[in-house]
């Protein structure tokens, strides 16, 4: 949920430019020295004329390589400009999100996130400046190469025509082909501005639970610290708190009057601790979660009698106990802004408990299926 932008690191392009520049300077100096050492500039020796032809061909090849390099730099500059636009939009969105929820995310976490965005923007603008300067330098170098080619063509025009009476020149012994002077152009690569940065998901939710045939309301919040494993897998610890409204979980007795009854109802305040594993793709995230719950229960046991005219409660006892048990669940979320999304979550847990001091058999065996939904705020991942 991934997404301030990408840093273009033109290492291959810089390497090409340095190699080309060093080789061109050496060749141009060599050509100039050859021309100065000629006996008569208007009529250079045949060997010098052959050297001039080779130098012209080499400079033309270098000119083509430099043109390809400039195209790569132009593509890189366009990519960085797009990244800068995305980072600036992320900065506006994060600022608007911070204000839209009443300043709840303002503070150390929010300022740290905003600082990361500003750092990414500064890095991208510095890269853009470097690319623009490289393009200017290459344009100047191309003009110098063209001027040198023009000078060599003028010298070549003064070479005497080949003589038919002269014996053919002896060819030099075969030499192994020279290695290429310039590496082939490489594709531009990009990396994330933030690097290996864990994400923090904060979720607030509301919904309901299906508990032994009853549907009490549920509300709460949870969060997770997620570490990336590759490009699409996230894993980390999770913790949360939720409140489940009172629900009648068990009835003993009852039936046609006259009869007695015992009703047991329970409400829960629950803290959960565990871990989750998520998979993200194009703004969506699917995941599973599980762990243990520590539940503070409020249990009310009411006893009474049902007669021909109705049921009457004769006594009521309320106790408070702590119950522990495992939970498992899953979730799906989707980003609607760079750091704000919506999610739906399902959890299942079973709680078994017999409160102390109650009538035997008056405890509860809870099968809870909770379905909740809400907003998720994500910090640290781009």
Secondary structure topology:
Blueprint: E1 6-8, H1 11-37, H2 46-100, H3 108-157, E2 190-192, E3 199-211, E4 217-229, E5 233-253, E6 259-281, E7 284-307, E8 310-335, E9 340-353, E10 364-379
Keywords:
single chain; Helix Hairpins; Porin; two-stranded antiparallel ribbon; 3 helices; rod-shaped; disordered N terminus
Summarize the structure.
By secondary structure, this protein is of the alpha+beta class. It contains 3 helices and 10 strands; from the N terminus they run βαααβββββββββ.
Would you kindly provide a written description of the structure presented here, covering whatever features stand out?
- This protein is α+β, with helices and mostly antiparallel strands and 382 residues long.
- It has 2 domains: 6-160, Helix Hairpins, CATH 1.10.287; 199-379, Porin (Beta Barrel), CATH 2.40.160.
- 35% of the residues lie in helices and 41% in strands.
- The protein contains 3 helices and 10 strands, in the order βαααβββββββββ.
- It has helices spanning 11-37, 46-100, 108-157, and strands at residues 6-8, 190-192, 199-211, 217-229, 233-253, 259-281, 284-307, 310-335, 340-353, 364-379.
- The strands form 2 sheets. An 8-stranded antiparallel barrel has the order 3-4-5-6-7-8-9-10. A two-stranded antiparallel sheet has the order 1-2.
- A hairpin with a 4-residue loop joins β8 and β9 (340-353).
- α1 packs parallel to α3.
- The longest helix is centred in the first third of the chain and has 55 residues, at 46-100.
- It is rod-shaped and about 135 Å long.
